[in-house]
Specification:
Largest sheet: 3 strands, antiparallel
Low-confidence stretches: 60-71
Mean pLDDT: 80
Order of helices and strands: EEEEEH
Radius of gyration: 16 Å
Oligomer: single chain
Number of helices: 1
């Protein structure tokens, strides 16, 4: 089964283990979290979810350097 990421449009390939599944998956291209529900190999719903950063990411700004002053 393939699902298009709602954030970037990348096709996310899912194994057969996701034929009857409800939960989150992550796009490997843009790291968007998608909440999906599948039944009998058919997609029933998909929602683009936002995930709050872990405490370490919040403290360190997720390791990004774009907020630091230029030298």
């Amino acid at each position: 089964m393939k699902i298009n990421c709602l954030s970037c449009g990348h096709k996310v390939d899912l194994d057969d283990v996701y034929d009857d599944y409800q939960g989150q998956i992550r796009c490997l291209v843009c790291a968007a979290m998608l909440e999906i529900k599948t039944e009998k190999g058919q997609l029933r719903s998909v929602i683009w979810t936002t995930v709050s950063p872990s405490p370490l990411e919040a403290e360190t700004d997720g390791g990004r350097f774009d907020n630091y002053p230029q030298t």
